[in-house]
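Dear support,

Our group has been running a series of protein-ligand predictions, and this particular one with iron/sulfur cluster is the one our PI (initials K.S.) wants archived with full inputs and outputs. We had some confusion internally about which version of the output was final, so please treat the block below as the authoritative record. The input we submitted was:
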Amino acid sequence: MIQLEAPFTEEKIRALKQGDEVEITGVIFTGRDAAHKYLHEGGALPAGMSLQNKIVYHCGPVVVKDGQGNWKVVAAGPTTSIREEPYQGDIIKQFGLRAVIGKGGMGERTLAACKEFGCVYLHAVGGAAQVLSTHIQKVKNVYFMEEFGSPEAMWELEIVKFPALVTMDSHGNSLHREILATSTNVFNQLVN
Amino acid sequence: MLLRNLDASLLELVRRTSAELPEDIKRVINQSLQREKKGSVAWNTFSIIEKNIQLAKERSLPICQDTGSCLFYVDCPVGLDQIAFAEVARAAVKEATLKGYLRQNSVDSLTGKNSGTNLGPGAPVFHFHQHASPELRVRLMLKGGGCENVGQQYSLPMESLKANRDLAGCRKVILDSVLKAQGKGCGPGVLGVCIGGDRATSYEHSKEQLLRKLDDTNSNPDLAQLEERVLKEANQMGIGPMGYGGEVTLLGVKIGALNRLPASYFVSISYMCWAFRRQGVNLDGNGEVQNWLY
Ligand code: SF4
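Confirmed final output from the archive:
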């Protein structure tokens, strides 16, 4: 198990290989459909917020306020990443992302951007909302709450030993592409 | 109200369905873990899944944040007031949403507005069946969006796969649906399949197959054989949990058949993710829970 800790430098990210299991510790931002569309259309980040060398998590968390009025994440599994494929590559380039966490993998454009700009795609276990929420220690901030609503807002979260698998690395390798090829081979043998 | 304690019983049915996986599913998930190589990515993934199931139960919180569509299957005695029953069930769904057992998950398709209550046109879904028994049996399935999106309907013959209108053709298209679902829908999953019917009844019947326990045996020997074969072959494809690669691609396959028109031959496949949320109860004359079904 590789410990991936902030700051997420290009060097650390380039060292990761497809198939590596990692535990991530540091700050991440959630972002899903509304945020990706907005950023891609030239929308600006709020003053003081930067995604440079940061991680974006494709997730619409369930967040509640506890007795003291603090935000608390109660369920936070990944959502399907491929919906962000039209935007992700450009956002990696423009904002300097170092990693994207999600589920289901992404396409060739994102893979190419990962290679060119030094970024990886990390797959979290889909449906594991409870386990993953235990690795979220703190809600540091929330952006675009008014504009996008709670699940679509960009939540700044402090995570500790958050488990994920490198399925697309910064060297052009994709586990998704690989499994598709091997399973298609078996399928062809089975049906022909 | 028709049955005094119906509201409390239905609320508890929703809570349990969302927070606790049925025994038959848990058993197969545990067997699947044992089949993966210890310490492999697939093994670790099953371990996280098992831990998640445990945590959700302890915390009485949703197993997955997508609490899906609420599908009610109600077998009721002659004379039960179905209109009143549906009213009580809708109130239970609303209450369960307030309590956080269900996510606000029902969106107006035209305006994009979330009703916030899980109520609206077509939500929740009710299937009432009258039966010649005094018992009231209520089953609930929560079916998430990710896995619903990878369902498929084939119309045979299908030239590209050389799939004809026979069980051999059915086998090919079912395996094709598994290949296409990889990496999506949070596998390992369970397939509910219907051969025949029209476009609507075929999908409906495929979902009803998911009400069967994973360890039952199909009463039709041909379908029993097909279920077993497809399960084995799908697992040979090596797609594994989450599409990471591994021994277990599917947890189960359940196939039913409906009559069709001579001109049609549909094979419909509903895919259920590992977060297989279904539960059921028998209720007595007061609406009290007599026993849990899964
Ligand atoms: S497919 Fe199932 S486990 Fe995955 S996110 Fe949807 S409901 Fe949850």
